[in-house]
Amino acid sequence: MTNKRTCFFVSLITAILLCFSATASAQRIQNSNYGTAGYINSDGRIQDSSYRTVGYIKSDGRVQDGSYRTIGYIKDDGRVQDSSYRTIGYIKSDGRIQDGNYRTIGYVKSDGRVQDSNYRTIGYAKDVPVSGAALFFFFMK
Questions:
Q1: Rounded CA gap, 100 and 86, in Å?
Q2: Which of 7, 45, 60, 89 could in theory staple to 80 by disulfide, Cβ–Cβ 3.0 to 4.6 A?
Q3: What pLDDT score does 140 carry?
Q4: What angle do CA 58, 59, 60 make, to 5 degrees?
Q5: Residue 54, Cβ density class (10 Å: 0-12 exposed, 13-18 middle, ≥19 buried)
Q6: Res 61: pLDDT
Q7: How far is CA 29 from CA 45, 92, 109, 127, in A?
Q8: Residue 133 class from Cβ within 10 Å (0-12 exposed, 13-18 middle, 19+ buried)?
Q9: What pLDDT score was predicted for residue 23?
Q10: What is residue 6's predicted lDDT score, i.e. its pLDDT?
Q11: For the purposes of burial, counting CB atoms within 10 Å of the CB of 116, is it exposed (0-12), middle (13-18) or buried (19 or more)?
Q12: CA angle 116–118–122, rounded 5-degree value
């Protein structure tokens, strides 16, 4: 009996640690009121505030929806393309986000603030890569 109880507790502790390690690698994205808007996991999985997977950012730059359909691409030079390779925007190295016509539509600041084109804070993405924050706030809507 003691052996079964020990195995149960070891299994339970292992499961808890796995849950904590999975959420510890997730980077939280917040709305302008600091409420959780979603998560970007270290494996590129994008989740909404209820932990439902809504998309993926793959290591090769592909962006997929929750059903693994490719919906776009992030190129090394910061171009954001749709599934037909048409450029729909740009993620600049200084954090500026532009649409396909080079109009600035927002900013991802170094402190994690995300702003619209009028510099109003629309969210927070501290420790989230600029490309992930830009996708979440400007291109996945």
A1: 9
A2: 89
A3: 81
A4: 90
A5: middle
A6: 95
A7: 13, 20, 14, 9
A8: buried
A9: 43
A10: 38
A11: middle
A12: 30
Stated pTM of the model: 0.78
Report the candidate in 20, 60, 27 with the shortest Cα–Cα distance to residue 42. Answer: 27
Residue carrying the six token digits 């904590």: 20
- The pLDDT, as a whole number, for residue 1 is 47
Q: Where are the alpha helices (DSSP H) in the chain?
A: 2-24, 130-134
Classified as helix, coil or strand, 37 is strand
Residue that the structure tokens 């994008």 belong to: 46
Q: Rounded to whole angstroms, how far apart are CA atoms 33 and 120? A: 12
pLDDT, residue 141, reads 65
> What residues of the chain score a pLDDT lower than 50?
1-24
φ/ψ of residue 5, rounded to 5:
-65, -40
8 A C-beta contact, residue 124 and residue 112: yes
Give the model's pLDDT for residue 4: 44
Task: State pLDDT tens for residues 3-25.
Answer: 444 333 333 343 443 443 344 46
